[in-house]
Amino acid sequence: MFHFDAILLGDRKTGEQVNLERAMLAHARFGGHFVQAHVDTTATIIRREHDGDSLRLWFQLPEPTADRPSLMPYLIPKGYVAIDGASLTLTEVNDSHRIFGVMLIQHTQEKIALARKADGARVNIEVDMVGKYVRKSVIAALGGGSEDGIRRLVEKAVENVVSVV
Questions:
Q1: Do the Cβ atoms of 126 and 37 come closer than 8 Å?
Q2: Where is the Lumazine-binding domain (predicted)?
Q3: Are residues 64 and 136 in the same domain?
Q4: What is the reported pTM?
């Protein structure tokens, strides 16, 4: 279930910059990942570091709860994440601390509002929908992810190997 308080639109102040982009055309060349503008959660900027002309940013996701499970399984190095609507490549992921990082090249810093946010700022996060589909499909293939479903899958795999031998 979606809760309006999961996004930060109400936290914006007069004059604060936000990213607005037109939707991608179906026949246009595609680079990056699909961004649907469906916010999954928020994160907090915990560190900013200049690296030559680039800017590295690190974010921390909130503690998972029953209503808001962890999104860390959807974040992988060199994978995609949308931060405040901007599609970015993940440079690092630390699952145990719920931290992930991105790097903004000079051009990107000039084009998106994220580069001007300070440590402690909260941002909207949308994880890659392909990861969501893969996870859902794998859980379904494993019989709902239950221990019995996994056991049946392993037993079937062993039977297939033994029948070949």
A1: yes
A2: 34-138
A3: no
A4: 0.73
